[in-house]
Amino acid sequence: MRDAASHPPSVHVSGHPLVAHKLALLRDKTTEPKKFRELVRELTWLLGYEAMADLATRVRRVETPLEAVDGAEVEPRVGLVPVLRAGLGMVDAMLELIPTAEVWHIGLYRDERTLKPVEYYNKLPDAATVQVCLILDPMLATGGSSAATVDILKAWGATRIKQVSLIAAPEGIATLTGAHLDVDVHVAAVDAHLNERGYIVPGLGDAGDRQFGTFAGPGKAMSRRNRRRSVDAISGALGCPSGTHRAYGPPSRPHNAASPRLRGDPQKLSTRYPQCGHSPSLDHRLTFAAYS
After folding, report:
1. Catalytic residue among 41, 77, 110, 160
2. How confident is residue 116, by pLDDT bands cut at 50, 70 and 90?
3. Which of 149, 218, 226, 245 could form an S-S bond across to 214 if both were Cys, CB 3.0 to 4.6 Å?
């Protein structure tokens, strides 16, 4: 673990004892997916509380049972941007803190060969509708996905952006702050380093797999049931019925970064699931993301 004093001023490492306690439970390899999801939610609540401590407020006059008094109301509109799929587990906790927040999904997967982020889903409206954006991603590893997400949000028109993550690597912090020093980063811990596969060490493993129970173990193929569960989690986040996005099996090599090759006929996929408004190519990308 790194000393918080060694980080740029925009990086905020929580010193709360409850955060440290829950993070230790989250790291434990014996923690089951149900408990893991609960801990992600609890940690997000605590980190979100800290991340929104500087939101501007305006005066709001309220009537108590005894007399009128000046209260406070959060002034800026807040948008939550969970990075699919691991960021999904952080949304509910943030919505408990600020129920009026808008939720916009951005999908990025990491190319396993280059470790670079590839965008496959973006549901932002044409123009920015919020003043503050909170990027939700449990792991700030290489920092490429976070920096790319900030690029997307700035091009969209977002003026203030924060990142909330559970664990960060020094490499990820360097990448994100090097590209966007104006983005505040709130984390529970900064770990030692990345390994050759781009995983944070000591970290906690793959946050998405541990939330959704899709970890098959080294050298083992993901089961059909776990593939289905993983793809359904993404479909549900996008408002699609369960079963909309068919899991055809692990992808073979991609045609290119934007259009991975998967098993299955796009036309059959479109015919088989007409209730979903997404294009077959997007269905394929979503399916691919479930394995990333």
Report:
1. 110
2. confident
3. 226
